[in-house]
Design a protein that fits this description.
heterodimer, A: 276 residues, Rossmann fold, three-stranded antiparallel beta sheet, 25% strand, globular
Chain lengths: 276, 287
């Protein structure tokens, strides 16, 4: 009785997705704070299992878009539907923070952080049981961190930190991953590791949005890309979106396009803050 | 040998020393555990402000009760809970920096407290009692209240361990998981307020922040795991309480100050030890 009361009263919005609706359906979304337009008339739609890269300069609204979808930031107008429901009712969405936003000196180890993903399923004031710990072990194994389960988080490499957050999203049983700059500051091997894990997730129908500055990574590894600079400049498959005109529109004076042989090189100087 | 034994046992032959020891240990443990979150969330100034903000409540109780000590606890409790919620709301509502908002409330309330107490004729003595506490004046009734409320605080922290961990480490995840983040924040504020109230007798208003911060900060130097940090902080705090009281007894210094100084000494020793260990590691690495 108590358990039922808690899960219904304290978490009133654990909604089920409506069948036959796209996992993410955003239409005419605008976000304005203090008369500054952060996002302007954003419309797009993703089906379950799709993988989209969000590209744009600093202050383009990438993080704002993710936080609105996650239901932690309010929006001014338009509509956001996740599996047919408004944001805020979903514990199936995982927002993976930029690594520079995390307090890595916090006294927790890898298992502690992954356990946090289970909290939504546990209910208030309940301790994780043996089944939960076993599930957490599985999530760690899935991202190849089972040997580092007891490691303090400040002692992880950048790639391991990112994989830990993916494991936490798995522990959360998330169906929609919002990854904020997951590849920034990582070497190519770590990027490949993460992409391989994401390939595995796609098999299970998990949808992934990742913001990045790496145009090449976006065009090679993502089937959908969005060029964002407060409004959508291009959305679709990389070949259609990454045209010189679109890139100039998105990055403005911060981007130079250089013809070299048969290829166009895009050289940008607008980067998000790197990891400290 | 018997000399040493007498050294430790003799002060305990006084009932007021026994009560003082027990109070210092209980309060130390509770403040250290709550203080772990104060340290991790960077709330030291909040804790300090809260301690000072209860002074007008205590002063009111003192004036209304005509100097009686018993009702003071409840006055302090009421003021602390109201202040913690007030400061919490101010943090959310104020369009200014959080520490500025806290500073305004803290100084204003403290001044009100001093003004109220100054209406009494021999006010310096009364003021000193509230500012610096007197653990040796703890009564059995005080001990009972400390035990009950201290127990409640520890049970609540254990019950909501994972929730407090999450809202401190990653409030965004807490929000996406639909945890009642705001309610949990206020619950933590109220727990800090309760810890402050039960410590009032021990160290007083002025040194309260040391009870919350110093043992937890020392433990933070020693471990990278939250539960262990809590246990270490609790052990350090109770040791500081006991050693501080012996120092107070034999050196005739104020009990609150002695406890806080011992705690500070622990911090310095651990810090030096940590630096030495790092130097040693670097030295062996070079060799």
């Amino acid at each position: 009785m108590l358990k039922k009361l808690q899960s219904n009263a304290i978490f009133p919005h654990h909604v089920q997705h409506q069948p036959e609706t796209p996992i993410l359906d955003v239409s005419s979304l605008s976000v304005v704070y203090d008369s500054i337009v952060a996002l302007d008339n954003i419309t797009f739609r993703l089906e379950a299992g799709q993988r989209m890269a969000v590209i744009g300069p600093n202050g383009a609204g990438k993080t704002t878009l993710f936080k609105v979808i996650a239901g932690v930031l309010p929006y001014s107008s338009g509509q956001v539907r996740i599996g047919g429901h408004t944001p805020g009712g979903h514990i199936c969405i995982a927002y993976l923070p930029q690594r520079s936003q995390v307090d890595w000196r916090f006294p927790v180890n890898v298992t502690d952080v992954v356990m946090m993903g289970r909290i939504g399923k546990l209910g208030l004031a309940h301790w994780p049981g043996r089944k939960d710990w076993r599930f957490i072990q599985q999530c760690l194994a899935e991202v190849g961190l089972e040997d580092l389960a007891g490691r303090q988080i400040s002692e992880l490499s950048g790639g391991q930190q990112q994989r830990m957050f993916i494991a936490r999203a798995l522990a959360q049983e998330a169906e929609l991953l919002l990854m904020d700059e997951p590849f920034t500051g990582l070497d190519v091997t770590s990027q490949e590791d993460i992409l391989r894990i994401l390939d595995g997730l796609r098999q299970r129908g998990v949808t992934v949005l990742a913001s990045t500055h790496d145009l090449r990574l976006a065009s090679e590894k993502f089937e959908q890309v969005m060029l964002l600079n407060r409004r959508i400049i291009g959305f679709g498959c990389p070949a259609d979106v990454f045209t010189s005109q679109h890139l100039m529109d998105a990055f403005g004076g911060h981007l130079r396009l250089v013809q070299s042989g048969g290829e166009t090189l895009a050289i940008g100087d607008a980067y998000c803050e790197e990891d400290r | 040998m018997t000399g040493l034994l007498t050294f430790f046992i003799q002060p305990l032959s006084y009932a007021f020393m026994q009560r003082g020891m027990l109070a210092a240990i209980l309060v130390g443990v509770v403040c250290a555990v709550v203080g772990t979150y104060v340290v991790l969330r960077g709330m030291a100034f909040f804790g300090d402000a809260l301690a000072h903000a209860i002074l007008p409540g205590v002063a009111m109780g003192y004036l209304v009760g005509g100097g009686a000590r018993e009702p003071l606890f409840w006055w302090a409790l009421g003021t602390a809970v109201v202040s913690s919620i007030g400061i919490g709301m101010l943090i959310r509502a104020a369009k200014m920096r959080e520490d500025t908002a806290i500073g305004i409330v803290f100084a204003g309330m403290f001044a009100l407290g001093i003004a109220l107490i100054s209406t009494v004729r021999n006010y310096t003595a009364d003021l000193a009692h509230f500012l610096f506490g007197d653990v040796l004046a703890v009564s059995n009734a005080d001990l009972l209240l400390i035990g009950i409320f201290g127990g409640l605080i520890i049970i609540t922290i254990l019950l909501f361990y994972k929730e407090f961990l999450l809202i401190s480490f990653d409030p965004l995840l807490a929000m996406t998981l639909r945890l009642p983040v705001r309610a949990l924040d206020y619950l933590l504020f109220i727990l800090i307020a309760l810890a402050v109230v039960i410590s009032l007798q021990t160290v007083g208003v002025a040194l309260m922040v040391a009870m919350l911060v110093t043992p937890a900060a020392t433990a933070y130097l020693l471990t990278r795991r939250l539960p262990i940090m809590m246990v270490f902080a609790a052990i350090l705090a109770s040791l500081a309480g006991v050693i501080g009281l012996y120092l107070s007894y034999y050196l005739s210094i104020a009990s609150g100050a002695a406890i806080v100084l011992t705690s500070t000494l622990f911090f310095i020793l651990v810090w030096i030890g940590k630096i030495l260990r790092q130097l040693w590691k670097r030295g062996t690495a070079i060799l």
